[in-house]
Amino acid sequence: MNILLRGGRIIDPSQDLDAPMDILIEGDRIARVEEQIKPAADMQVFDLDGMVVSPGLIDMHIHLREPGFEYKETVRTGSEAAVAGGFTAVACMANTEPVNDSRSVTEFILQQAKLADRAHVYPVAAVSRGLEGKTLAEFGELKDAGAVALSDDGNPVEDSGLMRHALEYAYSLGIPVMSHCEDRGLAAGGVMNEGLVSTLIGLQGIPSIAEDIMTTRDIAIAEYTKTAIHISHVSTAGSVQAVRDAKQRGINVTAETAPHYFALTDEALTGYSTDFKMYPPLRTGSDMTAIRAGLADGTIDAIASDHAPHSSIEKYVEFDYAANGIIGLETSLGVSLMLVHEGILSLGDLIAKMSTNPASILKIPKGTLKVGATADITVIDTHKTWTVDRERFRSKGRNCPFHGWQLTGKAVLTIVDGTVKYSEIQ
C-alpha cells in the first residue's frame, strides 16, 4: 500500500530543505515531495501537522553483540531498538565472537538483519585479525562481503606502522577507517576520568591525554599519507581541538561523539553506579563544553550512540570489575534534542549529524528525502514529553544512564524501505 505523509515540516539537509510539504511513498521509493498531494483511496495516510519529517536517522556506531554474545543483544533485538529510537540504519562494530574479520561473519550479520527485517544493518569489519593489532584483515574481501567501514573499536590500533598501512589500504578501496583513540599505557588500570572526582571517590583514573595523543597520531598519519581518518566517540577537549585544527589544515578527518559526552560529566559517578561506566569515560564539565562547541561549529560531524548492551552478569558488579558501556539506541534522539532546545544546534544541524553526515562518512545511499531515493524516513514529535523507562526498551540491555530522565522530543514513526516498522501514531 502506498503511504502519504501529509502536513509535516520536512527537514532534509541533503537538499537544504525546510518547509511544510507532503511526501508520497510508492513501494520502497519516495515518489513525490510537494506542497499538497491529494490522497487516493488506496493510500495509508498519516496526518503529521506539527511534526518533523526527516531522512531516516543513521547510528553509525553501535554494538549488536551477535554472533557470540546473543545473551546481551542480537541483530533482531538491536534492530527493534533502532527503529523504536527512530533509526532506519545502524552500523555495527566488529567485536563479536568470532570477530568480524572474515567474509563469513559479515555475511552472517547481513543474513540476520534480513531475517529481522527492521532497520538496515551495515557491518563494520575489523582493521586487524582478531582485533589483535598485529596483522591487517583482508579489507577487499570484507568490503566485497558488505562491510562499509573498518574499526578495531574496543581496541586501539597501537602499532603506528599497522595503522599507516590500514589507512593506505582502506583509502585505495574507498572504505573509511574508524579509529578508537586510546593510549593503553596511559589508560592502564583506569576505570573513570582522571581528575578531581576520581581523587575524591577513590577510583583509578584515565587521563584525557590517553585519547588526545592517539587522536593526534592518527590525524598525523592521515596527513602524511594523504588519506582519511574518522575519529570515534570523541570525549575530550583536546581531541576536539585536534580535529578542529586538522580540518583547518585541510586534512581529510571526520569525527563523531555520543550523547553521554554532551549530557553527562564524571560527577555522575559519585554514586558509584556502573550505569555511568563507559569507555571513553565521562569527562569533566570543560570537556563537555568543548564537545558542545565542536558540535556547534561543525568540528564534530556526527552523533552516534555507541550502543553497548551488557547483561547484569557483567554490569552490576563492583565498579572496578564492571564492563564498560551503556545502551543508547532508544534514548539517543531524545537526549540529542536537548541541544536544539538549548539553542546549541538547529534542528536541521541535528538531523545532518544524525542522518545526512553519517551516510556521507559511511558512503551509503541514505540520508536524503530526494525523489527516487529509498523511503527511509523518521517522523519526530519535537514536543512530545516522555520519561525514559529502561524496562520498556526493545533492547536486551538495561544499562542505561538516562533511566528516569524526562525528555522532550521522540521518534513517533519509522519507515524503512517504504514500510512502517515502528509507529506511535494512531
Main attributes of the structure:
TIM Barrel; 426 residues; single chain
Structure explained in plain terms:
By secondary structure, the chain is an alpha/beta fold. The protein contains 13 helices and 18 strands. The strands form four sheets. Strands 1, 2, 3, 4, 5, 16, 17 and 18 form an eight-stranded mixed beta sheet that branches. Strands 6-7-8-9 form a four-stranded parallel beta sheet. The longest helix has 17 residues, at 209-225.
Q: Report the portion of residues in β strands.
A: 15-25%
Largest sheet: 8 strands, mixed
Helicity level: 25-40%
CATH-assigned fold name of the largest domain? TIM Barrel
Rg over alpha carbons: 21 Å
Shape: globular
Can you tell me the residue ranges where pLDDT is under 50 for at least 5 consecutive residues?
none
What number of structural domains do the residues give? Answer: 2
Mean pLDDT: 98
* CATH class identity of the largest domain: Alpha Beta
Strand and helix layout:
Blueprint: E1 2-12, E2 17-26, E3 29-34, E4 43-47, E5 52-55, E6 57-62, H1 75-84, E7 87-92, H2 103-116, E8 120-125, H3 139-145, E9 149-150, H4 160-173, E10 178-179, H5 184-187, E11 192-193, H6 196-201, E12 205-206, H7 209-225, E13 228-231, H8 237-248, E14 252-257, H9 259-263, H10 285-296, E15 302-303, H11 312-315, H12 332-341, H13 347-362, E16 377-387, E17 406-416, E18 419-423
Parallel strand pairs: 1-4, 1-5, 6-7, 7-8, 8-9, 10-13, 11-12, 13-14, 14-15
Antiparallel strand pairs: 1-2, 2-3, 5-16, 16-17, 17-18
Brief description of this entry?
It contains 13 helices and 18 strands.
